[in-house]
Write a structure and sequence with these properties.
The chain is of the alpha+beta class. It contains 6 helices and 15 strands. The longest helix has 13 residues.
């Protein structure tokens, strides 16, 4: 009786027979093999429950037998179940479909994150949630993430040798983490997120903490000096020089504080004359 009351209460809160739980889930999620569906039918407790989707994309539902769910969205499956239950069983069946466990769609997260690996793509997952699932980026990470996505596949020399074309999208992670949500791109099944290691520079001379430092794209000389704790009272910011490798040769370059450093640069802050 308690279970029946709970199902009734949830469905009353829904719109058009859709439960609040179902309505909160993404309507465009495409069901696939190994997903576990949670189906509730108003006033028919025996029909509700958890239904795993088999490898062929179908599952067995009481009264109507096999139902092909693979490739359908949650709302499309609701409509299909209503139609088939209405055919000789119920006058106006009210039901909701949600995903209990997402298993069919996956993304891959590699590079400078705490827990690289393969993760289920759950609903409308976007980049920032995926990075969080992987334990966030490391201090050694660059300020970017690359989303590698398959766009099409071509058959080359027979059906067993697919040549998959991909597109790569570069996302500014620093901007995203600062609240620029236009960088929070939606993910798709099979996406690979690569967080590259930050490039390194070296800062020596009259700075507070000489050493090697990871930099992001477009780091300036002034920002590089800040990474090293700033210039000491004896340092000359007007005569900072950079030792750089160009075409295999070591060269020394005079730079301004607003100049952009390059990966592998060595910054040297000399002593002031007075």
């Amino acid at each position: 009786m308690a279970t029946r009351f709970l199902v009734l209460a949830v469905l009353v809160l829904g719109l058009g027979g859709r439960s609040a739980y179902s309505a909160s889930q993404p309507t465009n999620y495409v069901i696939g093999p190994q997903d576990i569906l949670l189906i509730a039918v108003f006033d028919q407790d025996d029909l509700g429950g958890k239904y795993p989707v088999d490898a062929d994309g179908s599952f067995t539902f009481p009264l109507i037998g096999r139902v092909n769910a693979g490739g359908l969205t949650l709302r499309q499956l609701e409509a299909e179940l209503r139609l088939r239950l209405k055919d000789g069983f119920f006058k106006d069946p009210q039901l909701s479909v949600a995903v209990e466990q997402y298993r069919s769609q996956k993304i891959h997260i590699v590079g400078e994150v705490r827990n690289p690996g393969t993760y289920p793509l759950t609903g409308d997952m976007a980049l920032i949630e995926a990075i969080a699932r992987a334990g966030s980026s490391l201090l050694t990470a660059s300020g970017e993430a690359l989303i590698v996505r398959a766009t099409s596949g071509k058959v080359v020399n027979g059906p067993t040798l697919p040549n998959t074309e991909t597109e790569v999208t570069t996302v500014n992670l620093k901007a995203l983490q600062s609240g620029a949500l236009e960088h929070n791109l939606a993910l798709r099944d099979g996406d690979t997120i690569f967080v590259p290691r930050a490039e390194t520079i070296y800062v020596f001379g009259h700075v507070r903490s000489p050493g090697a430092y990871a930099i992001v794209k477009d780091t300036t000389v002034l920002q590089a000096l800040s990474l090293a704790g700033g210039v000491t009272d004896r340092g000359a910011t007007s005569r900072v020089r950079v030792v750089r490798i160009e075409q295999g040769n070591k060269v020394e370059v005079r730079v301004k504080l607003t100049d952009v450093v390059r990966p592998g640069d060595t910054l040297i802050v000399p002593e002031r004359f007075f």
